[in-house]
Amino acid sequence: MAYVLQQLLSASAKRYPEKPVVCARGKALTYRELDEHSNQLAQLLLARGLKKGDRVGLYFPKSVESLAAMFGVLKAGGVYVPLDPQAPAERIGYIIGNCQIKVLITTGDRLHALDSAALRSLEFSILLGAAGNGSFERDLPWAALSEYPSTELAVQNVTTDLAYILYTSGSTGRPKGVMLTHQNALTFVQWCADTFRVTAEDNLSNHAPLHFDLSVFDVYNSVEAGATLHMVTDDLALFPASLANFIRDRQISIWYSVPSALVLLLLHGNLRAENLPRLRIVLFAGEVFAMKYLRQLAELLPQVELYNLYGPTETNVCTYHRVDRDRLHGMTSLPIGQACANTEVFAVDENDQIVAAGSGKEGELHVRGPAVTPGYWADAEKTNKACLPNRFQPHFEEKMYRTGDIVTLSADGDYYYVGRRDSMVKSRGYRIELGEIEAALLSHPGVREAAALAIPDEEVGSRLKAIVAPHSAGTLSAKELQQHCATRIPKYMIPEQIELRDTLPKTSTGKVDRIQLSRTQPQPV
Known about the structure:
Layout: H1 6-15, E1 20-24, E2 27-30, H2 31-47, E3 55-59, H3 64-75, E4 79-82, H4 89-99, E5 103-107, H5 108-113, E6 124-128, E7 139-141, E8 162-168, E9 176-181, H6 182-196, E10 203-206, H7 215-225, E11 228-231, H8 234-237, H9 240-249, E12 254-257, H10 259-268, E13 281-284, H11 291-300, E14 305-310, E15 319-322, H12 325-328, E16 338-339, E17 344-348, E18 362-368, E19 375-376, H13 380-386, E20 387-389, E21 399-409, E22 415-420, E23 424-427, E24 430-433, H14 434-442, E25 447-457, E26 461-470, H15 478-485, E27 497-500, H16 514-519
Parallel strand pairs: 1-11, 3-4, 3-5, 5-6, 6-7, 10-11, 12-13, 13-14, 26-27
Antiparallel strand pairs: 1-2, 8-9, 9-19, 14-15, 15-16, 17-18, 18-21, 20-21, 21-22, 23-24, 25-26
Helix pairs in contact: 1-2, 1-7, 2-3, 6-7, 9-10
């Protein structure tokens, strides 16, 4: 059994050297090629002075080189940081500085778009694509890997070393870096391998962006099993009919995505069971799946196992529920289920008591076990608020993670999601802090007040809306504010609607009255 992630590739490369491991954009790599390319990148990084634990940013659209970069960084003892290739340069610059990224693997145009201040921590960059040279002498083309040996270096890692850092939306208006160790990831990967019986005969999809935690299953379970991973690129993901053809043509056997992607496939992809004979498992996570659409999916694909997976980035998946078609039509909501193997979850009520099964009480879900993050990069305050000493187990020191999600526990041991205790929402599977949207709006010089709202929506989880009061009436438009936000936050966080008002309602303490604002919004039918 592997104790660090790169061992998954080394083992499968020995068993399946000439089998395709990843396909994307008309290119494919075999297990032998991926192993050799990642070894060459590790040799390059170490020769250029990368030290154990140094962070390497991956800032380019997903491609077969993505896997070579991820495994190459790990083999060099580094920590990879996948960055959203569609995010504004300002956000990427903040993450580079916050994480003190030493090496950036990117494209020439993306590198040139970054502010010089964002590049101060970089020691060098590696450029993919047509650009041969970057802004300065320390830039290297990806082709430089060929100058290095393809043999693996013996870099000593232990299970508790960091493997990667995923940046998620932050309540202060800045993203926060969730640190994940080899042990964190492998606890999840091993559970998936056992539960979903992933084999070398499987074809897995990779729908999620690589900076989104759903991709951890796609990449590492494919490699662990000797399966083939088929990447869904951004252009393909926009067209449901093309995506349905992709599942058919690539003979996908295991699909994993957010529910909103499945809803689009249902409504606009013309899915047909007879076209998908190899599809055996559909996994979904990241947001609530509207029951009417889940029933449609279950009826359309009667031969396919359906699983609802739940868990924040900080824990990977911590609970799961296999959909029972016999019970589905009588259910008003879908459980998030029971704890995964080697993980314990429990809900804590307002009296600091663990909620009993069948009690009907609500509580905040807590998680303990080897899948739980050690915390947030360079942010002890956030870490200490979320990763708490386990006061329910006083015999030795350990941490538990408080998810912020409110749940109930049924008599049969299934947890049901109720809502959030803070301002974080989910839209299209992304975790979004409304405070970060508000910070982007308030950074516009013409904005006096701003409040972001999440409007429940069965297709995407929540649609984002903002209420804005400008300094002077008639000086701003919704389109101008959306364009302004596009320079500061990712596209998926930009409000679809922006309503302009003279003023925002206030509470008795002078704060924006969010309850009143929410009451004035149209509710879903």
